[in-house]
């Protein structure tokens, strides 16, 4: 059940679960509300190395899961989709802010949009130059 | 032009599971599965690593659809 060479992985993930249980106790959550997520987290952490989604590097005990080239391509596409959706939403927010006379909101969202666009263009240029 | 492959056949010849081939080529089992089923085209580096593990020339493991198979 437990994969060899991943002892540190399991120990650190158990610490994360322990921190969750501690926080839940401090906040005063009911037992079921803290135990159910804890059980789900344990199941997730046990399943993850054997999910087939990641390359498991047992020589890197604290962070053994690595994305391979396919996973990276998937992440890249997903990030592009997220960027497009967020850009559209921010654009809609600018229009809404301008129409409802909330100039501060429109101005702030304009800055967010501009920063996103500049980051995209700079990153594209940098990646193109280095690939 | 679609990329075709005979990884499944070559794996069987070496008695390798998808996970074993994945371990030896440094990718995930799902990536090997996606390559086998033609849903993902590997990089040249990965294709070469796969061919090396399967002990065949690259073009025997992968070919373009309109090429003569395995020639």
Notes on the structure:
The complex is a heterodimer of chains A (131) and B (71). Chain A is built from four helices and two strands. With 131 residues, chain A is mainly alpha-helical. Chain A has a two-stranded antiparallel sheet. In chain A, a hairpin with an 8-residue loop joins strand 1 and strand 2. The longest helix of chain A is centred in the middle third of the chain and has 31 residues. Chain A starts with 6 loop residues before the first helix and ends with a helix. With 71 residues, chain B is mainly alpha-helical. Chain B is 52% helix and 8% strand. Chain B has five helices and two strands. Chains A and B meet through helix 3 of A and helix 3 of B.
Oligomeric nature of the chains:
heterodimer
Cα-to-Cα separation, first versus last residue of chain B: 17 Å
Helix-strand topology string of chain B: EHHHHHE
Based on DSSP secondary structure assignment, what is the total number of beta strands of chain B?
2
What's a quick, concise take on this entry?
The complex is a heterodimer of chains A (131) and B (71). The longest helix of chain A has 31 residues, at 69-99.
Summarize the topology.
The complex is a heterodimer of chains A (131) and B (71).
Chain A: H1 7-27, H2 31-47, E1 55-56, E2 65-66, H3 69-99, H4 103-129
Antiparallel strand pairs in A: 1-2
Chain B: E1 3-5, H1 7-13, H2 18-25, H3 29-36, H4 44-53, H5 58-61, E2 62-64
Helix pairs in contact in B: 2-3
Short descriptors:
heterodimer; A: 131 residues; mainly alpha; two-stranded antiparallel ribbon; 4 helices; B: 71 residues; two-stranded antiparallel sheet; 2 strands; 52% helix
């Amino acid at each position: 059940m437990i994969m060899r060479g991943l002892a540190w992985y399991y120990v650190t993930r158990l610490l994360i679960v322990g921190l969750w249980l501690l926080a839940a106790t401090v906040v005063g959550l009911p037992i079921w509300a803290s135990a159910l997520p804890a059980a789900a987290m344990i199941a997730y952490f046990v399943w993850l190395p054997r999910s087939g989604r990641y390359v498991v590097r047992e020589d890197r005990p604290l962070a053994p899961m690595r994305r391979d080239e396919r996973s990276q391509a998937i992440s890249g596409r997903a990030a592009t989709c997220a960027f497009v959706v967020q850009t559209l939403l921010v654009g809609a927010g600018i229009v809404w802010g301008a129409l409802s006379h909330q100039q501060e909101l429109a101005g702030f969202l304009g800055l967010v949009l501009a920063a996103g666009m500049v980051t995209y263009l700079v990153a594209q240029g940098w990646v193109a130059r280095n690939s | 032009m679609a990329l075709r492959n005979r990884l499944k056949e070559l794996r069987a010849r070496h008695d390798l599971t998808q996970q074993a081939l994945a371990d030896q080529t440094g990718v995930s089992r799902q990536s090997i599965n996606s390559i086998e089923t033609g849903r993902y085209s590997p990089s040249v580096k990965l294709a070469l690593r796969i061919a090396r593990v399967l002990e065949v020339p690259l073009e025997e493991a992968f070919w373009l659809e309109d090429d003569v198979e395995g020639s």
